[in-house]
Amino acid sequence: MGLITHKSLFCFFFFTSVLFILSWFFVLRSTGRPLFVDFGILPNSGLLANADIENSDESPYTNVSIVEEGGGTHNQILSKCDSKKQVKVFMYDLPPEFHFELLGWKGKSIWPDIRSEVPDYADGLNLQHSIEYWLTLDLLNSEFAENLSEKSAIRVSNSSEADVVFVPFFSSISFNRYSKLKPNQKRSTNVLLQEKLVNFLMAQEEWKRSRGRDHIILAHHPNSLLDARMKLWPAIFILADFGRYPPTVANVEKDIIAPYRHVVGSYVHDSSDFDSRPTLLYFQGAIYRKDGGIIRQELFYMLKDEKDVHFSFGSIEKHGISQATQGMRSSKFCLNIAGDTPSSNRLFDAIASHCVPVIISDEIELPYEDVLNYSEFCIFVRTSDALKDKFLINLMRNIGKEEWTRMWRRLKEVEIFYEYQYPSKENDAVQMIWQAVSRKVPAIKMKLNKARRFSPTNVSRENLLLSASLPRNFG
Ligand SMILES: *[C@@H]1O[C@H](CO)[C@@H](O)[C@H](O)[C@H]1NC(C)=O
Ligand SMILES: *[C@@H]1O[C@H](CO)[C@@H](O)[C@H](O)[C@H]1NC(C)=O
Ligand SMILES: *[C@@H]1O[C@H](CO)[C@@H](O)[C@H](O)[C@H]1NC(C)=O
Ligand SMILES: *[C@@H]1O[C@H](CO)[C@@H](O)[C@H](O)[C@H]1NC(C)=O
Ligand SMILES: CC(=O)N[C@H]1CO[C@H](CO)[C@@H](O)[C@@H]1O
Q1: Which of 187-207 are b and which e, b meaning 16 or more Cβ less than 10 Å from the residue's Cβ?
Q2: For the chain, how big is the Rg over CA atoms in Å?
């Protein structure tokens, strides 16, 4: 009995559902309206006209891509977009202990007057994470620069006019230099600064207004901001990679990957060619790494007997930057193997040396990959393939002079995108990062508008859910 009733009930339910859906369909059709969307309410159907945007000459998107054949045009295309998408940045006037004082600057004001003095960043390997320094200088400079049209970001003093809010905490140098306990300290300066920063931000109207979603926070060193990152995660991080972040805290949709500053010098008058670079494949790095180190060892045993391969262990620091410079400049290809983080400055050293990068790092995220086709100047090899006998070496040997030269030429065109400098110039790393920020702005605005659907005094459901879910994920 039970079975029959179940079955017939189900049939009945199914039948009525189908009937209901069909009748709904017919009712909608008979009113002459398209399903679900009421075109009538859109002003002049402007939104829909824009759907055809890719074919329109005035489209802001048409020529955003710098993935263009023929080097000459891409810079022009980029600069055209610059003027359209200049991002307005409000910068907190954080006390100097958060920024230039960490570099040893002792001034009486909040910011150095960069027209007369530009404090130096720390030297050596510290420089690879100096992104915080270059971006801050560029914002300070935007107040004095004569030609604002060249800038991808300008500082505004009224935060309600800003697209994003910039938090000028030099977290990488704070980690590198101030993580050790001083004799009379219970907690390191690096930890204390992060705590202060969190307290400061939580008290700001700008933060409360957006719950931090429109804030830009720098944490380029993988270990920087270790304590504060779990509290500041709604913000947009500028990072080297996502290796040490849970995907909910940092991810490629929300955040921005910035290049390392290369530590070997730029190859200015590079007149080398395929034949004048004797080494086929170059790798210099540490062998024993926590994760991903196994592949380095396996590759070492696979490649160590090939005569035109340089594969040696030891950090660049130990062996001298000049030796690495020499090695990369006299090699056709430079290996980048995942280490304890998916990224490393080796890739950017290779680009600066015009040595075609061979990337073996399945998880790597690359800077500006939304507008740049890395396959034009890099070779990607899956880890599983690289570990096959002779796969890598055969692949390298089969790349001929013509193909290599094409990649080498492209390297010379794109190297400017990885150059940090002050004053910043068109299309260098600083401008490219600001442009990456400006590409995030529409998504930020959408998130903010969504969050404002409900009365501002009543915290929206979404916000409650977001803040409630964090501690549980990472408890
Ligand atoms: C400002 O820069 C733009 C773009 O590079 C250039 O066309 C213009 O001539 C410059 N103006 C001045 C006053 O230097
Ligand atoms: C900032 O801009 C908003 C909106 O444009 C304006 O209402 C406000 O008065 C401005 N604040 C200051 C201090 O200028
Ligand atoms: C990226 O570059 C590679 C190598 O030049 C090319 O084969 C590929 O079609 C390019 N991809 C796009 C989307 O243009
Ligand atoms: C918040 O929302 C509730 C229910 O929607 C309403 O009764 C209450 O008055 C609101 N509170 C404020 C401060 O607007
Ligand atoms: C606005 C703009 O520069 N449009 C150009 C985009 O690129 C196409 C072809 O590459 C040109 O024909 C357009 O003039």
Answers
A1: ebbbbbbbebbeebbeeeebb
A2: 27
Left if phi > 0, otherwise alpha if psi is -120 to 50, otherwise beta: which for 13?
A: alpha
Cα 361 from chain centroid (whole Å): 16
The encoded tokens of residue 197 equal 């920063």
More confident site: 129 or 362: 129
Cβ contact 151:431 at 8 Å: yes
- Nearest-atom number in ligand 5 for the CA of 63 is 6
Choose the residue to mutate in 150, 151, 424, 431 for probing ligand 1, maximizing ligand atoms within 8 Å of C-beta. Answer: 150
d(CA 222, CA 239): 7
Please state which of the ranges 51-60, 112-121, 460-469 shows the lowest mean pLDDT: 51-60
Phi-psi label, residue 120: left if phi above 0, alpha if psi -120 to 50, beta otherwise:
beta
Question: In this structure, how many other beta carbons lie within 10 angstroms of the beta carbon of residue 424?
Answer: 26
- Residues 313, 224 contacting (CB under 8 angstroms): no
Q: How confident is the model at residue 350 (pLDDT cuts 50, 70, 90)?
A: very high
Place of tokens 């017919």: 26
Q: Best mutation site among 55, 58, 61, 63 for ligand 5, i.e. most ligand atoms within 8 A of its Cβ? A: 63
Cα of 155 from ligand 2 centre, angstroms: 15
Name the β-bridge partners of 312. 284
In this structure, which residue's CA is closest to atom 3 in ligand 5?
63
Question: 148 pLDDT exceeds 90?
Answer: no
Q: Atom of ligand 3 at shortest distance to CA of 67?
A: 14
Beta-carbon count within 10 A of 208 CB: 11
Cα–Cα distance measured from residue 182 to residue 436, given in angstroms and rounded to the nearest whole number: 39
Confidence of residue 423 (pLDDT cuts 50, 70, 90): very high
Q: What would the DSSP string read from start to end of 348-409? A: HHHHHTTPEEEEE-TT---TTTTT--GGGT-EE--HHHHTSTTHHHHHHHT--HHHHHHHHH
φ and ψ at residue 126, rounded to 5 degrees: -55, -35
Q: What are the structural domains of the chain?
A: 2-82 (no CATH), 87-261+431-451 (no CATH), 279-418 (3.40.50.2000)
CA distances (Å), origin 221, targets 3, 57, 258, 259, 262: 64, 42, 11, 11, 14
- For the cut 80, the answer to whether the pLDDT of residue 449 exceeds it is yes
Is the entire prediction scored with pTM above 0.85?
Answer: no
* 468 CA to centre of ligand 4 in angstroms: 20
